[in-house]
Specification:
Elements: E1 13-16, H1 22-29, H2 32-36, H3 46-58, E2 62-68, E3 74-84, E4 87-94, H4 103-118, E5 123-129, H5 133-141, E6 145-152, E7 155-163
Parallel strand pairs: 4-5
Antiparallel strand pairs: 1-2, 2-3, 3-4, 5-7, 6-7
The protein binds coenzyme A.
Residues 5-6, 33-34, 37, 91-94, 99-105, 126, 128, 132, 134-135, 137-138, 141 line the site of coenzyme A.
Amino acid sequence: MVKLVKMKLHSLKLMEANIKDAKILFDLANDPLLRSMSFSEKPIKWEEHLKWLSGRFESEKCSIYIGVDEADNKVGYIRFDMVSFDEAKISISIARDFRGKGYGSQLLNAGCKKIFEKSSVKKLWAIVKKENIISAKFFKKAGFLLESEKEIKGVVCFNYYLNKEQE
Ligand SMILES: CC(C)(COP(=O)(O)OP(=O)(O)OC[C@H]1O[C@@H](n2cnc3c(N)ncnc32)[C@H](O)[C@@H]1OP(=O)(O)O)[C@@H](O)C(=O)NCCC(=O)NCCS
């Protein structure tokens, strides 16, 4: 499974997201670093976000979890979008003030474990822009392997994967 990469100084709970988390997910989605590392770099509007999020909650192909710390802070999210019967794509973001404390690794670890347990997913993908050095290190450190370097929408990206049997 995904390697735990640092001492658990703070422990994180995994919570299934619901529509009450719309605002925190909106703020995380509009974080400048996440936007700059996404394919659509424009800021997201609230109405657009609510419509998109409602669609995700209604879909059986999407699972969203929030990481909650010991002080009940919602520190970040991880989202899995099924791209086929047994494969899903990951999106993850930690709020700026909580980065670099090991929360991202814990959320990734717990989220991957959960999705492998509860769904038909056997392979996870993380598509990272080549310029996103932090995320490339982050996924590699968690045990993801590099499958290929591909151009997507004119941007060079690394495709990382994790198989269920790597658990
Ligand atoms: C990528 C992201 C989720 C990492 O979360 P985090 O909680 O800050 O990461 P962690 O503290 O768990 O760090 C785990 C590893 O990631 C790498 N890493 C994290 N922050 C780093 C930094 N600023 N510089 C270099 N490497 C870094 C390191 O390998 C680190 O392990 P180490 O501390 O033992 O060296 C976070 O930076 C983020 O939300 N970024 C913006 C959104 C994004 O780019 N998402 C990925 C695209 S899907």
